[in-house]
Amino acid sequence: MLILLAFIIVFHITSAALLFISTIDNAWWVGDNFSTDVWRMCVMNTSTCMAITDQFSEYQSIQAVQATMILSTIFCCVAFLVFILQLFRLKQGERFVLTSIIQLLSCLCVMIAASVYTDRHEELHKSREYSIEVSEGQYGYSFVLAWIAFAFTLISGVMYLVLRKRK
Fold first, then answer.
1. What pTM did the predictor assign?
2. 3-state helix, strand, coil in the chain (%, to 5)
3. Sequence-separated (6 or more) residues with CB below 8 Å from residue 79
4. Are residues 138 and 22 in contact, defined by beta-carbon separation less than 8 angstroms?
5. What gap in Å lies between CA 36 and CA 140, rounded to an integer?
6. Potential cystine with 157: which of 5, 20, 98, 104 (Cβ 3.0-4.6 Å)?
7. Which of 128-132, 135-139, 150-154, 159-163 is the most confident on average?
8. By C-alpha distance, which of 23, 31, 32 is closest to 62?
9. What is the reported pLDDT for 131?
10. Within the chain, how many helices (H) and strands (E) appear?
């Protein structure tokens, strides 16, 4: 039982780490000399970064991605705290339903963020407000980590739903 508990905790912390990295790091869309994410666009040659502000035509889409990624990260951290509390508060044989619901909300939020970005990426990168041409890029590792975090949070949410407290 202790090994299973350790695995669940490590899996949950890994999910949270993936969410933090994909939310913070600047690699949702990358090219030869630039990288951009949901917060800013950086040019590699000059090492300058420009914040994505409301001057951008698709700023509402970026804000939706920002908000849902932040919510996903918060839900994942709250789910971990609730799991630790339920570990000591639940009676033997009960399920971790509250932890599961919060973790599945985290899963839903990261799915929404990655889906919005996937759907709107063409419009996001054709904006004339960028200082260089960014439409000729590809998805970066932060975007991929967001989808991996989706899978991890989904698996852990279902795991918490099935899991019962034992001695």
1. 0.88
2. 65, 10, 25
3. 12, 99, 102, 103, 106, 160
4. no
5. 9
6. 104
7. 150-154
8. 23
9. 63
10. 4, 5
